[in-house]
TrEMBL record:
Keyword set, alphabetical order: ATP-binding, Kinase, Nucleotide-binding, Transferase
Boundaries of every DAGKc domain copy: 8-137
GO molecular function, one term: kinase activity
Name of the protein in question: Diacylglycerol kinase family enzyme
Gene3D superfamilies: 2.60.200.40, Probable inorganic polyphosphate/atp-NAD kinase, domain 1
Keyword ATP-binding: yes
Domain of life: Bacteria
Length: 324
C-alpha cells in the first residue's frame, strides 16, 4: 500500500477518505480534493490511496504513529474507524461528507469541509461516551425491530438530501412499523427483569432532547447513561400521533413508549436465534442475548474551541465615569 504525505509542518494526522460517502458524490476526485484542503491549511497528513478498500485505509491509519485520525465521510465511515480506534490514545477528527453527519452536527462541527479541516489544528477536543453491544460499538443509538429494516432504504437515500427524500424515509418507517411483527423481548437492567412486546426498541447513548424540530437530538454526549425506548403495542394511527409528538418535541414521556434510564448495562434476550440490529445506521445480525454497555468518555473528538466568556461590564463603574 502506498502512503502519501503532504508537506505541511504542523499537526500530524492520518486521513481516511470514503469517496462513496453521500455528500462526496457531488465532488469530482474527492480524495484529491480533501488532500488539497490539508495542503492549503499546511497540516501535515498521511493519506492512503482513497481508491483502496476502506478497511485497508483504516488498518494503515491504526498502524501509523499519527495521533489524530481524520475521517472524510459519513456516519458509517466514522463508525468503521471508531471500531478500530477504541482503546487507543488516538483522537478522532470528523470531516463531514455524508448524508446525515449526525455526530458532526452534535459536536458543533462546521459542514464546510475546508473549515472542518482547519479545526484539526485549530480546534480543541472533548471526551464523549460510547455504547457497545456484543463487541460492536456505536455512538448515538442501536435499534432493534422495524427501524433496523430501514437500512436498505437509507442506502437508496444516500446522496440525496431533499425534503421529498426525507418524507420517503418517514413513509418507509411507517410501513415497516405496520408490517414488522412484534418481538418478544426481555429487558434486564440491574435487578429488574421486564418482558417487552414491541415492534421497535432503541438503546441510546445519553438521552434525547425535547423541543420543536429537535428530532433524535441528544441533550448531552457525556452524561454517562444508556436510555432504552420501546414502542408499546399500538395501532398505526397512534404511531402517527407519536410521530407528531416527536415533531412537536413532546414525546419522551409519551404513554405509547416504554422508557428506561440505565447507568451502564442493559441485557436483552429474544426468542430468536439472530436479531437484526442497526447501530448508527449500519446493520448487523447478532446472536442474543444482546449485552449493551456504556463506555463513559471513551472517545476523544476534535471540536471547535469554546469562545471565552465575556465578562459583563460593571454598571457602577460606567455610572461613575459618566458622572465624573
Amino acid at each position: 500500500m502506498t502512503i502519501k504525505r503532504n508537506k505541511g509542518a504542523t499537526v500530524r494526522c492520518f486521513v481516511v477518505v470514503n469517496p462513496r460517502a453521500g455528500a462526496s458524490l457531488d465532488i469530482p476526485n474527492f480524495g484529491q480534493h480533501v488532500r488539497g484542503l490539508f495542503e492549503a491549511a499546511a497540516i501535515q497528513a498521511d493519506f492512503a490511496d482513497p481508491d483502496i478498500e476502506l478497511d485497508r485505509q483504516i488498518e494503515a491509519a491504526m498502524a501509523s504513529d499519527a495521533p489524530i485520525i481524520a475521517v472524510a465521510g459519513g456516519d458509517g465511515t466514522v463508525m468503521a474507524v471508531v471500531q478500530a480506534m477504541m482503546g487507543t490514545p488516538k483522537k478522532l477528527a470528523i470531516l463531514p461528507a455524508g448524508t446525515m453527519n449526525v455526530l458532526a452536527h452534535e459536536v458543533g462541527l462546521p459542514m464546510d469541509l475546508s473549515k472542518a479541516v482547519r479545526l484539526v489544528e485549530e480546534g480543541g477536543s472533548r471526551l464523549i461516551d460510547v455504547g457497545e453491544v456484543n463487541g460492536h460499538y456505536f455512538l448515538g443509538n442501536s435499534m432493534l425491530g422495524a427501524p433496523s429494516r430501514l437500512a436498505k432504504r437509507r442506502e437508496g437515500f444516500r446522496g440525496r438530501s431533499s425534503g421529498r427524500g426525507y418524507l420517503d424515509l418517514v413513509r418507509a418507517g411507517i410501513r415497516a412499523l405496520r408490517r414488522y411483527p412484534a418481538m418478544g423481548l426481555v429487558v434486564e437492567t440491574g435487578g429488574d427483569r421486564r418482558p417487552v412486546e414491541t415492534r421497535a426498541l432503541v438503546v441510546a447513548v445519553n438521552d434525547y432532547e425535547e423541543g420543536v424540530g429537535k428530532v433524535m437530538t441528544r441533550a448531552s454526549l457525556d452524561a454517562g447513561e444508556l436510555v432504552v425506548y420501546a414502542l408499546k403495542p399500538v395501532t398505526p394511527l397512534r404511531v402517527l400521533g407519536l410521530m407528531l409528538a416527536v415533531l412537536l418535541g413532546r414525546w419522551r414521556h409519551d404513554q405509547r413508549l416504554l422508557r428506561l434510564e440505565v447507568e451502564d448495562t442493559v441485557r436483552i434476550t429474544a426468542r430468536r436465534k439472530r436479531v437484526r440490529v442497526m447501530n448508527d445506521g449500519e446493520t448487523l445480525l447478532l446472536t442474543p442475548p444482546l449485552t449493551y454497555r456504556l463506555h463513559p468518555g471513551a472517545l476523544e473528538v476534535i471540536v471547535p474551541k469554546m469562545e471565552p466568556a465575556v465578562e459583563p461590564s460593571d454598571p457602577s463603574a460606567t455610572v461613575a465615569s459618566v458622572g465624573s
